[in-house]
C-alpha cells in the first residue's frame, strides 16, 4: 500500500485511489532504471502533500504580492539556504516549476530573440532546451550545436572551442540528458571565457552525484547552474537555478515575473527536505554507490555483448546501441518493461534511425540504488536484460514473464520508500 496512506482519497475518489495504489505497486515490483527517475523519501512525500499547496506567494521572501506569507517566507528561505550550503553557491532560486522552465529563465535573463546559443545536440545527449529545433529555444534563438566524437562517443573540447570561436554564442550550455561521462566544467569555462559567453551547467542528471561528492562540481566554473531536483538528487519534481551573486537579480527577475506566477510552495518545502537529506554522509555514500553500481552494470552489459556509447560510464547513466543485438531500441525497451525492467528507448550519437524508433536504450542506477541493490546484483540485471532482449527477438513471452517474476522476487527483499506490503 501507498505510504503515507491515502484513506481520504480512497473514500472520496476510489477510482483515482486505485490507480495511485496500483502505481505504488508497479514501482515496487519493477526494476526502475529510467536514468532521470528515483524514489523520494517518505518525508519528501509528506512535505509534497501538505496544506502549503493552498497558498499563493508570487514574488520572493519579504517582497510578495499576496498577504499571509509569515510561514511561506521562512520555508522558501530554508530551501534557498540549504541549496546554497549544499552546493556552495552564492545564490539559489528554488521556484522554477521544472527543468525546462529553469532553462528558459536563463534565455530570458541573458539573451534577446535571435541571439546565438550553443548547446549539445539532442541526439548526441543534450536537452531540448539547449537549442533543439522543435523547442522554443531553437525556434526563437539561433542555436549552434556541438556533438560527440564519432569514435570515442565523448565530447571533444577542441571541436567545441572551434565552434564557439566561429559562432560567438552569448550562452553556452554544458550537460545533458544522455551523457555517460564526466563533464569537464573547467574546460567549458575556459572556452566560454575566451568567447565572452555565459556558461550554464545543466546538472539535472548529476546534481545528486555532485552533492554527494561523486562528480566534480561546476561551482567556480559555470556562471549559472540549472538543475531539476528529482533525478539523482532524489527530491520532488521541481528545479533550481544557482548563480554567482552577480547574476542573481537577472535570474530572479526572469523566473518571476518573467516566466512564472506563484511558486509551488508544497514543492519548495519538499525540495528543502531533500536538500537536507542530500547533505548527510549517508547521501554521500548513496551517490558513490550509484556510480559503483553503474560501473558494475556497464561492465556486465559489455560482457554480454551490449555496445555502450563511450565504452562505459563515469556516472549513473548508460547509453547502449542495440544494433549489434539485432533489435531496435523501442521494441527492446517495451520487452524489457514487460520483463519488469523499466528504461527508455533513446537515440544514440549519429543514429541512423528516427527519434521515435531509435537504435538505443538509456538506463540509470539511481532508483535501484535507493532500493539497496549493490554491485553484486548487477551481473544478474545484465543477464536479465540480455535474456529479455533475445527473447523479444523470438517472441518468447514465456521467458519475458519468467524474468518479470524473478525481478519481483528479488525486489521483494528491498523496501521501497512510499510503499509497504499490505
Ligand atoms: N525527461 C528528462 C530525462 O529523462 O532526462 C529530460 O527532460
UniProtKB/TrEMBL annotation:
Its EC number is 2.1.2.1. (6S)-5,6,7,8-tetrahydrofolate binds at residues 122, 126-128. It catalyses: (6R)-5,10-methylene-5,6,7,8-tetrahydrofolate + glycine + H2O = (6S)-5,6,7,8-tetrahydrofolate + L-serine. It holds the Pfam family SHMT. Keywords: Amino-acid biosynthesis, Cytoplasm, One-carbon metabolism, Pyridoxal phosphate, Transferase. Coiled coil: none annotated. Its cofactor is pyridoxal 5'-phosphate. This is Serine hydroxymethyltransferase.
Amino acid at each position: 500500500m501507498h505510504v503515507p496512506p491515502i484513506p481520504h482519497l480512497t473514500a472520496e475518489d476510489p477510482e483515482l485511489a486505485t490507480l495511485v495504489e496500483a502505481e505504488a505497486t508497479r514501482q515496487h515490483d519493477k526494476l526502475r532504471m529510467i536514468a532521470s527517475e528515483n524514489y523520494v523519501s517518505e518525508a519528501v512525500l509528506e512535505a509534497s502533500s501538505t496544506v502549503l499547496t493552498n497558498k499563493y506567494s508570487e514574488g520572493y521572501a519579504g517582497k510578495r504580492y499576496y498577504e499571509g506569507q509569515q510561514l511561506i517566507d521562512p520555508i522558501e528561505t530554508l530551501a534557498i539556504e540549504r541549496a546554497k550550503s549544499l552546493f556552495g553557491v552564492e545564490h539559489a532560486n528554488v521556484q522554477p516549476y521544472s527543468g525546462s522552465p529553469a532553462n528558459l529563465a536563463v534565455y530570458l535573463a541573458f539573451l534577446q530573440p535571435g541571439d546565438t546559443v550553443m548547446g549539445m545536440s539532442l541526439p548526441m545527449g543534450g536537452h531540448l532546451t539547449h537549442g533543439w529545433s522543435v523547442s522554443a529555444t531553437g525556434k526563437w534563438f539561433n542555436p549552434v550545436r556541438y556533438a560527440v566524437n564519432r569514435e570515442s562517443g565523448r565530447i571533444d573540447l577542441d571541436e567545441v572551442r572551434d565552434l564557439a570561436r566561429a559562432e560567438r554564442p552569448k550562452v553556452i550550455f554544458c550537460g545533458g540528458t544522455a551523457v555517460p561521462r564526466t563533464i569537464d566544467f573547467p574546460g567549458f569555462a575556459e572556452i566560454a571565457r575566451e568567447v565572452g559567453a555565459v556558461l550554464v551547467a545543466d546538472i539535472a542528471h548529476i546534481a545528486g552525484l555532485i552533492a554527494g561528492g561523486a562528480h566534480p562540481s561546476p561551482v567556480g566554473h559555470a556562471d549559472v547552474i540549472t538543475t531539476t531536483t528529482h533525478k539523482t538528487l532524489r527530491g520532488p519534481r521541481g528545479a533550481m537555478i544557482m548563480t554567482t551573486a552577480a547574476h542573481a537579480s537577472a535570474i530572479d527577475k526572469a523566473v518571476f515575473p518573467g516566466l512564472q506566477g506563484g511558486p509551488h510552495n508544497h514543492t519548495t518545502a519538499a525540495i528543502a527536505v531533500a536538500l537536507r537529506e542530500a547533505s548527510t554522509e549517508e547521501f554521500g555514500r548513496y551517490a558513490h554507490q550509484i556510480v559503483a553500481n553503474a560501473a558494475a552494470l556497464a561492465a556486465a552489459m559489455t560482457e554480454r555483448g551490449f555496445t555502450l556509447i563511450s565504452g562505459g560510464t563515469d556516472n549513473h547513466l548508460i547509453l547502449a546501441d542495440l544494433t549489434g543485438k539485432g533489435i531496435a531500441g523501442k521494441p527492446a525497451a517495451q520487452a524489457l518493461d514487460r520483463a519488469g525492467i523499466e528504461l527508455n528507448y533513446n537515440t544514440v550519437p549519429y543514429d541512423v534511425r528516427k527519434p521515435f524508433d531509435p537504435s538505443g536504450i538509456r538506463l540509470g542506477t539511481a532508483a535501484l540504488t535507493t532500493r539497496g541493490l549493490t554491485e553484486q546484483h548487477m551481473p544478474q540485471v545484465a543477464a536479465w536484460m540480455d535474456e529479455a532482449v533475445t527473447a523479444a527477438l523470438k517472441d518468447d513471452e514465456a521467458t519475458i514473464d519468467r524474468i518479470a517474476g524473478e525481478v519481483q522476487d528479488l525486489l521483494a527483499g528491498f523496501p521501497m520508500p512510499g510503499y509497504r506490503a499490505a
